[in-house]
């Protein structure tokens, strides 16, 4: 199965608005206890999460996984840091690239692939305000063209 393909559980839509994504990497994620049950139920949020390289390991911060309702005492801390599973050469490349000015590592989406939970990580460069406005103008123009085309088709 290609990278980034599977049953999408959560997506970080704000990431494409705030960043130019230049490269993507697929990473496994280390979960505890009932976290996978909550993820399969779709009770996860990637909104303010980010990835850092610490001690030669990729770590995901700020991903909120709600406690599983039937988990009672086996539940976990919703905002705990989670280790990502990547090859050593990928971690080294990400570490070097993220040290450049203006680059960040952000999770783009969380999905299930062959029964395993995967995270699509993007090496991203931050957008300026004028870039965001330009993207909104392009999106609005495209929407207007499609609307006019549909109206013309009805006639």
Automatic annotation (TrEMBL):
A Pfam match: SmpB
TM segment ranges: none
Keyword RNA-binding listed: yes
Entries under CDD domains matching the protein: SmpB
SUPFAM superfamilies documented for this protein: Small protein B (SmpB)
Presence of keyword Cytoplasm: yes
Localisation per UniProt entry: Cytoplasm
The entry's keywords: Cytoplasm, RNA-binding
Protein task: Required for rescue of stalled ribosomes mediated by trans-translation. Binds to transfer-messenger RNA (tmRNA), required for stable association of tmRNA with ribosomes. tmRNA and SmpB together mimic tRNA shape, replacing the anticodon stem-loop with SmpB. tmRNA is encoded by the ssrA gene; the 2 termini fold to resemble tRNA(Ala) and it encodes a 'tag peptide', a short internal open reading frame. During trans-translation Ala-aminoacylated tmRNA acts like a tRNA, entering the A-site of stalled ribosomes, displacing the stalled mRNA.
Sequence similarity: Belongs to the SmpB family.
UniProt-recorded name of the protein: SsrA-binding protein
Classification lineage: Bacteria, Bacillati, Bacillota, Bacilli, Bacillales
């Amino acid at each position: 199965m290609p990278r980034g393909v599977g049953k999408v559980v959560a997506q970080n839509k704000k990431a494409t608005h705030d960043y130019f994504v230049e490269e993507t990497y697929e990473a496994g994620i280390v979960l505890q206890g009932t976290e996978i049950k909550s993820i399969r139920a779709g009770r996860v949020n990637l909104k303010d999460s980010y990835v850092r390289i610490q001690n030669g390991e990729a770590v995901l911060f700020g991903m909120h996984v709600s406690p599983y309702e039937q988990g009672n005492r086996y539940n976990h801390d919703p905002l705990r840091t989670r280790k990502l599973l990547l090859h050593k050469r990928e971690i080294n490349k990400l570490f070097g690239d993220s040290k450049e000015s203006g680059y960040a590592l952000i999770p783009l989406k969380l999905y299930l692939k062959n029964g395993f939970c995967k995270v699509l990580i993007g090496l991203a460069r931050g957008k300026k305000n004028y870039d965001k406005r330009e993207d909104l103008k392009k999106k609005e123009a495209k929407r207007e063209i499609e609307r006019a085309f549909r109206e013309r088709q009805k006639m």
